[in-house]
Amino acid sequence: MNNQSEPTILAIETSCDETSAAVVRGTQMLSNVIYSQLDLHAKYGGVVPSIARTAHQEKLPGIVEQAVEQSGIEFDSIDYVAVTQGPGLAIALEVGISHAKELATKLGVPVIGINHMEGHLVSVLNEVDQLQINFPVLGLLISGGHTEFILVKELGSYQKVATTLDDACGEAFDKAAVMLGLGYPGGPAISKAAAVARDRMSIVVEKDQQSTLVRASVENDTERKYELPIPMLNSGDLNMSYSGLKTAVKHLINSLSGNSDLRNIRQTAESGELTQEQVEEISVVFEEAATEQIARKLKSAIKKYPETKEVWMGGGVVANKTLRAKINSIVSDRNLELRLPADNVLAADNAGMIGIAAALKVQRSDWKDGQDMDRKPGLSF
Ligand code: KG4
Ligand code: ZN
Hints:
By secondary structure, the protein is an alpha/beta fold. It is built from 12 helices and 13 strands. It has helices at about 40, 50-70, 90-105, 115-120, 170-180, 185-195, 245-255, 265-270, 275-305, 320-335, 345, 350-365, and strands at about 10-15, 20-25, 30-35, 80-85, 110-115, 135-140, 145-155, 155-165, 200-205, 210-220, 220-230, 310-315, 335-340. Helix 4 crosses helix 12 (about 350-365), helix 5 packs parallel to helix 7 and helix 7 runs antiparallel to helix 9 (about 275-305). The protein is globular and about 70 Å long. The model has no long low-confidence stretch (mean pLDDT about 90). The chain binds 5'-O-[(R)-(carboxyoxy)(hydroxy)phosphoryl]adenosine and zinc ion. Zinc ion binds near residues 120 and 145.
């Protein structure tokens, strides 16, 4: 598989709130250094682009040095520089792109622009023998910025077959967590709160006239009952949506807290109007509705593309255990192969996955020096 004759690539990722650099040789990661800006953005309940840019500018040169040092290689053995060119925050991407160009010029090597979503897609291929892959593959990319299904006929041949029409799945977790007073980032906080309450709840998914609902109640307590919709199940296509679920969470919190002022919802849980138990139980119902939408759409996608042999999952929300369990059971019932990132570091934003994407592009001669390096708005598959 990988050996010294494979190209050595320095990769850079600055699309959002992680400043990251990695060194790969072929698809083997020699280092993957990440500086997370979470603490800088936490008090705003989301990423502030100008703060992200400044932090990238301050941290990136040092992170690159660390990545090279930890990889055990010297700067002069780098064959290519790879960098995320989009999609992402324009002013954050620019920091990585200009640093990558500078480095490539200094080292006298080409610079390869990488699509961030292709990075998430191939994040499952760290040290995977390509001969073992069976195409076509359905790639589920589920992050804070995107919720997409990609049909992969072969590496480099991508067709987006489903997308969210509004918020991304991770974004919905983040927004629901703010409403519940659980802080940012919301995904890990909601799954932690939900894990506490899951065992005391009974959950059913039921159809009423217009919609499909998650109904949950606490055993032996008829008062503690919750209901949230799973959007888009009757849309007749594979697309997803999260804004209706978010609004339903708002209404649920309002009705439980007796506070009908939607604008004040951010303070509802923080001001103690919900009990800790209610926060945990709403987390269970939300997590169930958010992940069930993806699971059911995956079932429909496999029906629509019955030639599918493998399912790959990439993006930060892959860390969610409820989602993984649902996808795992769908995939194994159908005798398909499931590939996941080796760990949560490779699932979330990181330069390692950008390096892997670049290595695979070099292998298939699918790149041009500096091509499309200037970010294109909305660049995606
Ligand atoms: O891939 P990623 O690091 O960044 C983007 O490209 O967006 O994904 C970050 C997203 C955040 O919205 C975060 O709340 C979510 O992934 N996330 C989770 C979990 N861990 C991270 N969502 C649900 N459950 C989790 N355990
Ligand atoms: Zn991402």
